[in-house]
Amino acid sequence: MYSGKLVFAQLMDRLPLQTFWRCVKRYPGKYPTLTFSHLDQFLCMAFAQLTYRESLRDIETCLRAHASKLYHLGIRGGIAKSTLADANETRDWRIYRDFALSLIQAARKLYAGDDFGLELKQTVYALDSTTIDLCLALFPWARFRKHKGAVKLHTLLDLRGNIPTFIHISDGKLGDVKVLDLIAFEAGSFYVMDRGYIDFARLYGMHLAQAFFVTRAKSNLQYRRVYSHPVDKATGLRCDQTIALTGQKSAPDYPVHLRRVKFYDEKHDKLLVFLTNNFDLPALTIADLYRCRWQVELFFKWIKQHLRIKRFFGTSENALKTQVWIAIAVYVLVAIVKKQLKSDASLYTILQILSLTLFEKTTLNQLVSVSMNISSECEMSNQLNLLAMSLLVVERDLFPEKRTGMRREIEGYGSDQSICANQDSWEDNA
Fold this sequence. Notes:
The protein is of the alpha+beta class. Helices cover 46% and strands 17% of the residues. Among the domains are: 7-96 and 313-345, no CATH class; 197-279, N-terminal domain of TfIIb (Single Sheet), CATH 2.20.25; 364-424. The protein has helices at 7-12, 17-26, 38-51, 56-65, 70-73, 81-90, 94-111, 200-208, 250-253, 283-291, 294-306, 317-340, 347-357, 364-398, 403-421; strands at 124-134, 143-145, 148-158, 163-171, 190-193, 212-216, 223-229, 237-245, 258-265, 270-276. Strands 1, 2, 3, 4, 5, 6, 7, 8, 9 and 10 form a ten-stranded mixed β-sheet that branches. α2 packs antiparallel against α7, α6 crosses α12 (317-340) and α14 packs antiparallel against α15 (403-421). It is elongated, with a radius of gyration of 26 Å.
């Protein structure tokens, strides 16, 4: 099916184009798009994400260098910096938001049966935000502080596959807790979040929606103990309590009982206190659920490192949101391809392959298979090098007179090992 096609074309062929054009028709624009369509814009921006382009000029130069292949990439319009800039400025960013959300729905179906470390049938979400710093002089609409600009990326992450299901882009001033007003909570699902989202009126609304939350308790929490459940302190648990809030404001905001779980994290020497409205799960599972919240932090780290959402190609709000949503669409598309190919390679590995082979005609299956073989050989080489180096170190310690002559040999094994190790410097199982 994909024989003789460029890798970029193989990837983009997996896009649901009928859905894309429905999104375009939903938000009609004021300017003609005959010479440079919305699809041309999307493909150029997706190309920029996959190849780590730095600017619109960089995109133009790189694509024009492959002018004879543009038709085979699916790009029909002429490539010019000004044309792409105008498209990002004027075409409604909601087109690409809706399209990214459609890809997210498809990805969630593919990852619905995946395990994320806990034996739970319910859907578990991690909620958090990340701040992207901006120059206030260039982005005056994104005011954060007096002399500083920023936008916030509020994200709800489905832990099965690490797929973002809700994304809200705001200026830097929007408080995290206000995002709870924008989320449609699913009955029976778990929402894991940090202390920044504690607002008992909003949490009670989540409770009335029959959704469960797990969060950290603040140190100034006012409550009375209603009942204490027995715990096994050997597991790290210190208490499992049913409590009632007694604060002047919190008590009327949350008029029903809560569950308070205290857990000692021996690894980090921290005593953690969790609040939840779920009374059925074991107390240790509640602590494990909060530990899973770290996946959303890894997601932010991943997209900041491997996608273009920190350096923007335009300064308007529309251009910024367009770029972010297309970046999310590319991330989800790669996740879909990974699942369709039934590959054990990480998203980072697949992205690295794509960035180097977009103009090749090898099939995606072959590329991913070759990369996995190389990774396996590299891992085996690392293990052999470590064994050999360990034996040399033991021999050096037993025979001190040989130390000088063996130093270079030991260092040689270390350098060989690092060559392979550098290939997987930041692995991710998303």
